[in-house]
Amino acid sequence: MQEAVDLYAQPRKIGMPSLTVIEILVAGMTALLAGVVALHASLTRARGGKILAFIALFLLPALAMAAGLSQQMEKSKSTQFCMSCHVMEDYGKSLHVDDKSYIPAAHYQNNRVPRDQACYTCHSDYTMYGGLTAKIRGLRHVYIQYLGNIPKPEDIKLYTPFNNRECLHCHAGARSYMETSSHHKTPDMLQLAAENKLSCMSSRCHDTVHDVETLADAKFWTEKN
Length: 225
Description:
The protein is mostly helical. The chain folds into 2 domains: 2-75; 79-162 and 201-217, no CATH class. It is 51% helix and 0% strand. Helix 2 packs antiparallel against helix 3 (47-75). The longest helix has 29 residues, at 47-75. It is elongated. The two termini are 20 Å apart.
């Protein structure tokens, strides 16, 4: 399982101290100041002592919690995080199918989406609250993983039909999209797609998505380092 997960790991960039180190420092400072307040409770009688107690017992813990939450929310965008659930393994494998008709595989292998955030990029709506909605759904997935009834991979469905908006966020205006002959089978095809009246993914066009139930017979692409 670990080997499968590591396929999606990205090299860590070296730069500023990581948020984890900052969290540890804040936690250590919090514990130190809390200890001072506990051992010298009389300090809180003075105005400065009350401020110290507020910082140690409320402000710093709140900052540490916010930093930790932010870090985990960012981590949850990674392909590696999505593939860490056993039920998602086949979906991860489908990204490596050596067949360009598999839409997720074609996008993943050709870097049309960032490989380290492939799932999040395609499955978060490009709207004001799209990222928030995706994270709320992600929390539900975590709940099901540990406390709910985990479905079979082939039984997993989208919450709502895939909106063309998500496709056109990248493809609209692109020459490869505008000039492809199959996109001009009817004079109004592009207009209907833009209005989401003709689905890109369920109108006998790009309807081969993950298709996890067919992976047993699939040929797989091996990424070269």
